[in-house]
């Protein structure tokens, strides 16, 4: 008698994996690449994992798949015209699937997502920008309606 196959699927495993990779990165464990960023003289270096960057960014995937073997196990990538805070937020997003930024930085996060070809971050930024725009439009509509009702009530004797 044959047994029916069953699906074993963990809902927490992807989140646990991301959390563990983030902890490894923050502690500098098993990092095999250093990303240096510079913007207007401000420079910083970020240790990371090639596999995580390549899995989340087509830019990094292309860089790592096309690199030549080097002497050591660690390599470097240099990005200019990328603000340190923005790249730090990008890393937090790709390692945790979430990041908190100020509203005025959403456009810059979208730009870094497009530069690094990170579809998940691009989509997340677009969704947030759409929500922000809808909120503004609703406020304008509400304001316009309240102005109209005030004018109508003021015009009536």
TrEMBL record:
One of its GO terms (cellular component) is nucleus. Pfam families: BTB. It is found in: Nucleus. Residues 31-103 form the BTB domain. Keywords: DNA-binding, Metal-binding, Nucleus, Repeat, Transcription, Transcription regulation, Zinc, Zinc-finger. One of its GO terms (molecular function) is zinc ion binding. PANTHER family: AGAP004733-PA, ZINC FINGER AND BTB DOMAIN-CONTAINING PROTEIN 44 ISOFORM X1. This is GZF1 protein. It comes from Toxostoma redivivum (California thrasher). The lineage of its organism: Eukaryota, Metazoa, Chordata, Craniata, Vertebrata.
